[in-house]
């Protein structure tokens, strides 16, 4: 129930995580769009400010020109009041004013033409860019459709292949289980016979005494080692856990943006560290529990050491698996934008430290496997090589302590450099401090283990048990005999405290032993005689059945002969009591009966010869009196049967060989298919990532093109507004010039002055509006 609740809680957290990720992505997209809109507004504001500045400057120029014209108009009116003699001057002044307006009009026309050309060029450029973008968009959509079709085809193909391989795998697993059961049965029988032979050849008198002091020392040493192993396991668990947390925080914070796929895989592997670290403590605890006062503790009898060696090998393989991800993660930290040269150097030093630590663990694995080998395979490690293995193991434990100490020092320096960065967060600082603390604990625990192993090296290399007159190590059979003798001795001492029965003299014991040995030999001889008698009885039973069949055959033949003799006697009596013709008929009848009997025997012989079954063969044997022909036929029948059975046996052997080779081929195919499935799964993942990336690029391209189109549209709208304003100004100027020309023809200076004043005022109002 708790497991179901935890699974439900995990699923709810995953769903909430997906919703939060989607919300973060949407907010990022909204933020990017708002930034783009703000940028566009700033650009449009700058353009409007520039246009306002240019218009204000133009208005100032026009205002100065209007003031100049007003001054000239006032001067011309003053001159007109002095006399009408100077009537030609206003006309000259009007011509000058007209030339000024014509010049302004010409400038406006040129500026309008220039703006039309710019508008046409911008429109052409916009259309060309839009066509190019639409073409590229079409090509990208086609590529996306092609990729999707390829991915769908590959997915279908791979699913079919996986289903077929799964069915093959299930069938092969069933066959493999059957073969494993048969092999296990054969192995168990073989081990029983081997143990039986070893015990039969073993001299139980050549057994060393039980060393209780050695057992107590071994128990104490194993207890100390267990406490150190527990500290080491706790430090390793903390180190891997804090490393996983750091991967989720730096260089990218997974709560804000997704981390790289490599760090995701690295985090997944680090999350599984307990499955490799916890068994080290459990297996060593079992090893400590197996060492008691009543056991024999040598390399050949410590079976639990093999379990610890296997778990240590599993953890070493785990370190080898995560080493490339550790190195790549440090390289990503080096590629971060705020990573300094000092941090890069420390990351490179940490890469070298991690490689060194993994290498030392591999060497420790090799030596621990060597120490665990004698408990599985006898005489696998000579006694002379044991001390060298323990010495090398102690040396590499010190090397492990030095490597982890160096890595802890470099991590401390790296943590100090990271705290100086401006973007460092409190969460990163806390995680880094915890990581440094776990490394300190790991350094302390490895140092204690190395010192403990060096101090007890003499105990490890000493031989606590050794048979008399022999330099080889104690084997498990001798250990069992030693424990059995210890139990017997304990029982004997316990029995001494009780009233003892009268003991048997030594000579009587020797004579009893001889009697027992002779009775054992006689028992073996009688057993062989019983087996021979049983075989002889079985052979006699077969002969008895054969002679019973012969007796039945003879009985049937006797009855037939008696019947035939009775018939012949009756016919003979009838013939003797009758005429000579009747005697002749009787003789002919007798001869005919002989011929019929012979014919019946021949017909019966032919019919039974054609029969192949055993029942018809027995029936035919009952009607044949020739012993040699009967034996020949029986021999022929059984030879044929033996040939058929031999053929069937050969066929069965060939089928078995064929099935064995087929199973091996299918197993190889299954392995190859598994590898290809993994490869294809990676390819499918890469294809999905490429599709996602292309879709993101396509969406980004569409968004950028839409933004560009909106900007071009706004620019065109502003250009149209500018052109419309300029057209209005040109129309106003044209209207003013048309009205000014007839005014110059009038000779009345007052009318001309009033018209000019009204025109200039109207022009000023138009400009400032």
Automatic annotation (TrEMBL):
The gene is ppp1r21. Keywords: Coiled coil, Endosome, RNA-binding. PANTHER family: PROTEIN PHOSPHATASE 1 REGULATORY SUBUNIT 21, SMOOTH MUSCLE MYOSIN HEAVY CHAIN-RELATED. It comes from Sphaeramia orbicularis (orbiculate cardinalfish). Pfam families: KLRAQ, PPP1R21_C, PPP1R21_helical. Residues 123-189, 523-578, 663-704 form a coiled coil. This is Protein phosphatase 1 regulatory subunit 21. Residues 583-592 have a biased composition (Low complexity). The keyword Coiled coil applies. Residues 36-50, 593-604 have a biased composition (Basic and acidic residues). The keyword Coiled coil applies. GO terms for cellular component: early endosome; membrane. Residues 88-100 have a biased composition (Polar residues). GO terms for molecular function: RNA binding.
